[in-house]
Design goal:
Length: about 200
Amino acid sequence: MTQRVAILISGGGSNMAGLARSMTGDHPARCVLVLSNVPGAGGLAKAAALGLPTATLDHKAFPDRPSFEAALHQTLTEVRPDLICLAGFMRILTPAFVGKWPGRILNIHPSLLPRYPGLHTHARALAAGDSHHGATVHEVTADLDDGPVLGQIRMPIEPGDTPDTLAARLLPLEHQLYPAVLRRIVTGQRARLDLSTEDVPR
Ligand code: GAR
Protein backbone atom coordinates (compact mmCIF):
# COMPACT_ATOMS: atom_id res chain seq x y z
CA MET A 1 0.00 0.00 0.00
CA THR A 2 1.26 3.48 -0.78
CA GLN A 3 2.89 5.12 2.21
CA ARG A 4 1.99 8.67 3.10
CA VAL A 5 4.73 11.19 3.84
CA ALA A 6 4.36 14.67 5.30
CA ILE A 7 7.30 17.07 4.99
CA LEU A 8 7.93 19.90 7.45
CA ILE A 9 9.99 22.91 6.35
CA SER A 10 10.99 26.37 7.51
CA GLY A 11 12.95 27.72 4.55
CA GLY A 12 13.90 27.26 0.93
CA GLY A 13 12.71 23.68 0.78
CA SER A 14 15.34 22.24 -1.53
CA ASN A 15 15.43 18.99 0.45
CA MET A 16 11.62 18.92 0.44
CA ALA A 17 11.63 19.29 -3.36
CA GLY A 18 14.17 16.48 -3.70
CA LEU A 19 12.09 14.19 -1.51
CA ALA A 20 8.84 15.08 -3.23
CA ARG A 21 10.29 14.60 -6.72
CA SER A 22 11.60 11.19 -5.67
CA MET A 23 8.13 10.05 -4.58
CA THR A 24 6.74 9.55 -8.08
CA GLY A 25 6.39 6.64 -10.50
CA ASP A 26 6.97 3.25 -8.86
CA HIS A 27 8.11 4.80 -5.55
CA PRO A 28 6.12 3.21 -2.72
CA ALA A 29 5.38 6.57 -1.05
CA ARG A 30 3.72 9.85 -1.89
CA CYS A 31 4.01 13.29 -0.31
CA VAL A 32 0.62 14.19 1.19
CA LEU A 33 1.47 17.55 2.79
CA VAL A 34 4.20 20.18 2.94
CA LEU A 35 3.85 22.21 6.11
CA SER A 36 5.86 25.30 7.04
CA ASN A 37 6.08 27.02 10.40
CA VAL A 38 7.28 30.15 8.56
CA PRO A 39 4.67 32.04 6.52
CA GLY A 40 5.91 32.69 2.99
CA ALA A 41 8.83 30.27 3.27
CA GLY A 42 10.31 29.70 -0.20
CA GLY A 43 9.59 26.00 0.02
CA LEU A 44 5.83 26.62 0.07
CA ALA A 45 5.90 28.07 -3.46
CA LYS A 46 8.14 25.20 -4.59
CA ALA A 47 5.66 22.69 -3.13
CA ALA A 48 2.69 24.39 -4.77
CA ALA A 49 4.56 24.37 -8.10
CA LEU A 50 4.99 20.62 -7.66
CA GLY A 51 1.23 20.30 -7.16
CA LEU A 52 1.53 19.36 -3.48
CA PRO A 53 -0.91 20.33 -0.73
CA THR A 54 0.59 22.96 1.58
CA ALA A 55 -0.16 24.33 5.02
CA THR A 56 1.31 27.03 7.21
CA LEU A 57 1.30 27.03 11.00
CA ASP A 58 3.09 30.15 12.18
CA HIS A 59 4.58 29.21 15.53
CA LYS A 60 4.63 32.91 16.48
CA ALA A 61 0.84 32.95 16.34
CA PHE A 62 0.65 30.51 19.27
CA PRO A 63 1.11 31.49 22.91
CA ASP A 64 3.49 28.64 23.70
CA ARG A 65 5.19 25.55 22.31
CA PRO A 66 2.56 23.04 23.52
CA SER A 67 -0.25 24.91 21.76
CA PHE A 68 1.79 25.13 18.53
CA GLU A 69 2.53 21.42 18.75
CA ALA A 70 -1.12 20.58 19.45
CA ALA A 71 -2.08 22.37 16.21
CA LEU A 72 0.77 20.67 14.36
CA HIS A 73 -0.33 17.27 15.64
CA GLN A 74 -3.93 17.96 14.63
CA THR A 75 -2.97 19.11 11.11
CA LEU A 76 -0.73 16.08 10.63
CA THR A 77 -3.34 13.69 11.99
CA GLU A 78 -5.79 14.92 9.36
CA VAL A 79 -3.47 13.75 6.54
CA ARG A 80 -2.64 10.39 8.24
CA PRO A 81 1.10 10.29 7.49
CA ASP A 82 3.04 7.06 7.87
CA LEU A 83 6.23 9.13 8.01
CA ILE A 84 7.06 12.75 8.80
CA CYS A 85 10.23 14.12 7.18
CA LEU A 86 11.81 17.21 8.71
CA ALA A 87 13.58 19.03 5.88
CA GLY A 88 15.12 22.25 7.13
CA PHE A 89 12.43 22.47 9.83
CA MET A 90 14.01 24.77 12.38
CA ARG A 91 11.72 24.23 15.40
CA ILE A 92 12.73 21.91 18.19
CA LEU A 93 10.03 19.30 18.78
CA THR A 94 9.32 18.37 22.39
CA PRO A 95 9.55 14.80 23.67
CA ALA A 96 5.76 14.88 24.14
CA PHE A 97 5.24 15.58 20.42
CA VAL A 98 7.88 13.12 19.26
CA GLY A 99 6.33 10.46 21.50
CA LYS A 100 3.10 10.70 19.53
CA TRP A 101 4.90 9.60 16.33
CA PRO A 102 7.40 7.02 17.62
CA GLY A 103 9.93 5.93 15.00
CA ARG A 104 8.03 7.84 12.34
CA ILE A 105 9.87 11.18 12.23
CA LEU A 106 13.06 11.56 10.15
CA ASN A 107 15.38 14.56 10.04
CA ILE A 108 18.29 15.70 7.92
CA HIS A 109 21.07 17.48 9.76
CA PRO A 110 24.07 19.17 8.13
CA SER A 111 26.85 17.42 10.03
CA LEU A 112 28.32 13.99 10.58
CA LEU A 113 26.37 13.24 13.75
CA PRO A 114 27.19 12.69 16.57
CA ARG A 115 29.47 15.63 15.73
CA TYR A 116 27.81 19.03 15.92
CA PRO A 117 24.18 18.67 16.91
CA GLY A 118 22.42 22.04 16.91
CA LEU A 119 23.37 25.08 14.85
CA HIS A 120 26.42 26.46 12.97
CA THR A 121 27.59 23.01 11.95
CA HIS A 122 29.77 24.17 9.02
CA ALA A 123 31.65 26.72 11.11
CA ARG A 124 32.12 24.21 13.91
CA ALA A 125 33.58 21.57 11.56
CA LEU A 126 36.06 24.16 10.24
CA ALA A 127 36.97 25.44 13.69
CA ALA A 128 37.69 21.88 14.83
CA GLY A 129 40.04 21.33 11.89
CA ASP A 130 38.04 18.35 10.66
CA SER A 131 39.21 16.62 7.47
CA HIS A 132 35.64 15.70 6.49
CA HIS A 133 32.15 17.11 6.80
CA GLY A 134 28.79 15.79 5.76
CA ALA A 135 25.12 15.30 6.46
CA THR A 136 23.09 12.79 8.43
CA VAL A 137 19.55 11.48 8.17
CA HIS A 138 18.40 10.16 11.50
CA GLU A 139 15.31 9.08 13.35
CA VAL A 140 14.01 11.85 15.59
CA THR A 141 13.89 10.94 19.26
CA ALA A 142 13.34 12.97 22.41
CA ASP A 143 16.91 14.33 22.40
CA LEU A 144 18.00 16.95 19.85
CA ASP A 145 19.79 15.52 16.76
CA ASP A 146 20.44 12.31 18.69
CA GLY A 147 18.29 9.52 17.24
CA PRO A 148 19.58 6.43 15.42
CA VAL A 149 21.53 7.29 12.28
CA LEU A 150 19.84 5.98 9.14
CA GLY A 151 22.30 7.40 6.64
CA GLN A 152 25.28 9.69 6.19
CA ILE A 153 27.08 11.30 3.29
CA ARG A 154 30.71 12.43 3.69
CA MET A 155 32.82 14.86 1.74
CA PRO A 156 36.37 16.17 2.26
CA ILE A 157 36.94 19.67 3.60
CA GLU A 158 39.23 21.52 1.16
CA PRO A 159 41.85 24.18 1.94
CA GLY A 160 40.22 27.61 1.85
CA ASP A 161 36.73 26.30 2.65
CA THR A 162 34.40 28.66 4.52
CA PRO A 163 31.07 27.91 6.18
CA ASP A 164 29.39 29.16 3.00
CA THR A 165 31.42 26.99 0.61
CA LEU A 166 30.83 23.95 2.81
CA ALA A 167 27.10 24.62 2.94
CA ALA A 168 26.93 25.10 -0.83
CA ARG A 169 28.86 21.90 -1.52
CA LEU A 170 26.92 19.88 1.04
CA LEU A 171 23.38 20.80 -0.01
CA PRO A 172 23.41 18.83 -3.32
CA LEU A 173 24.78 15.87 -1.37
CA GLU A 174 21.88 16.18 1.08
CA HIS A 175 19.61 15.92 -1.96
CA GLN A 176 21.23 12.55 -2.79
CA LEU A 177 21.15 11.23 0.75
CA TYR A 178 17.64 12.04 1.96
CA PRO A 179 15.68 10.48 -0.94
CA ALA A 180 17.96 7.42 -0.84
CA VAL A 181 17.31 6.93 2.87
CA LEU A 182 13.59 7.59 2.50
CA ARG A 183 13.28 4.95 -0.22
CA ARG A 184 15.03 2.44 2.03
CA ILE A 185 12.83 3.24 5.02
CA VAL A 186 9.57 2.92 3.10
CA THR A 187 10.75 -0.44 1.77
CA GLY A 188 11.52 -1.64 5.28
CA GLN A 189 15.31 -1.28 5.26
CA ARG A 190 16.49 0.50 8.38
CA ALA A 191 20.16 -0.53 8.09
CA ARG A 192 22.41 2.51 7.95
CA LEU A 193 23.39 3.83 4.50
CA ASP A 194 26.88 5.33 4.13
CA LEU A 195 27.70 7.41 1.07
CA SER A 196 30.89 9.30 0.30
CA THR A 197 31.97 11.61 -2.51
CA GLU A 198 35.32 9.80 -2.33
CA ASP A 199 33.77 6.52 -3.49
CA VAL A 200 33.60 7.94 -7.01
CA PRO A 201 37.01 8.41 -8.70
CA ARG A 202 37.51 12.05 -9.72
C1 GAR B 1 19.66 21.97 5.03
O1 GAR B 1 21.04 22.17 4.91
C2 GAR B 1 19.36 21.08 6.22
O2 GAR B 1 20.32 20.08 6.43
C3 GAR B 1 19.40 22.08 7.33
O3 GAR B 1 18.76 23.22 6.85
C4 GAR B 1 18.96 23.27 5.42
C5 GAR B 1 17.60 23.41 4.78
O4 GAR B 1 17.72 23.67 3.40
N1 GAR B 1 18.73 21.57 8.51
C6 GAR B 1 19.07 21.89 9.76
O5 GAR B 1 19.97 22.66 10.02
C7 GAR B 1 18.25 21.21 10.83
N2 GAR B 1 18.85 21.38 12.11
P1 GAR B 1 16.46 23.45 2.46
O6 GAR B 1 15.31 24.25 3.07
O7 GAR B 1 16.88 24.04 1.14
O8 GAR B 1 16.16 22.00 2.40
